[in-house]
Amino acid sequence: MFSLSLFLSQPLRAVHQGIMFSLIKLRCQTTSVLNVNQVPKAFQEDGIISGYRHPRSSATDCVLSLFQLTNETLNVWTHFLPTWYFLWKLMTVLLMEDALYDAYTWPLLVFLFSCCVYPLASSCAHTFSTMSACSRHICYFFDYGALSLYSLGSAISYSAYVFPDAWVNSTFHAYYIPVAVLNTIVSTSLSCYSRLGLPFLHYDIDESFSERQSPRLSKVLRILAFAYPYLFDNIPLFYRLFLCVGEGCTDNEANSIHVHHTLLAFLTAFLFATHLPERLAPGRFDYIGHSHQLFHVCAIIGTHFQMKAIEADMVLRQSQLLVTAPPITFNNTAGSALVCVCISLGIICLYSLPLLYGSSETHTTSAEGKKCKH
Ligand SMILES: [Zn+2]
User: Fold this and answer.
1) What's the 160 CA to ligand 1 centre distance in angstroms?
2) Domain residues of the chain, as ranges?
3) What is the pTM of this model?
């Protein structure tokens, strides 16, 4: 009996030791965060002193780091969890009877789809951005493309439900979606350009135009790339909320929700542009409370209010818009979004290919002598 239990306990003990060893190894791997002086400049963030992941992490390390507190952990979760919220909203509308056959709901479906894509792309970008300098650039190219799609999703839903009565069927209304599509192309290109300049011409991760060489210009270009499509999309809404007087202003219960969304959008832009609060107290907000996390949270709450306002307008104005507004077609909803996705993917490929396959040379990308294969 004793010998049998001893016989059985040996492999169990070996398994137990194996598990303990794996856990210790995992803990050792996942607790090795670096400070700002240990990572290349391309990975450094203003006002963030510690909590950096290794700049050559494996994909597995990147995923495991989500369960450890680094300066990116909350950046990932603040967009990953809301993705499921918007996906749930999208599925709810999709599963409603006749949603796919009712053209009136298509703009809302496109908007909700874009609301799922942008936080998902962002959380993936934040997760895998520390695999290498190249992966960091490519991850954020996708992030920018997804933001452009969200901008177009907003425009498509505004065109269908939010335009003030006075502007419905105007010349501006007729050109609104085509211009919004054009804006997404310019926005994706400009935001990608803001990282490394033009592919094939400027790309030299070490020396020439890069985010690290002219961070202020990069930041200004990136803010411009996101702000101008947002401002264009919101021209009809701003007119309706702040300028319109008299008839045709569409003053309904959705207006106050639109105001909430607008205030949050400006707060989001302010946080992105100023790097507050960590700029005032470098090192204090490395893990919790830095501007990028607050920026993510404000963006998501803003998107939630935007969705509520769009839904309110959609329901309140349905009977009237079905008579007066231009017909909702595949071309001015899913078709436009599809064009945007294809062109944005093309632009991202154009900006990414030189990083992946440009030449067989390797370039030093960091003070530590890490290599980035072209
Ligand atoms: Zn982010």
Assistant:
1) 29
2) 58-239+317-359
3) 0.84
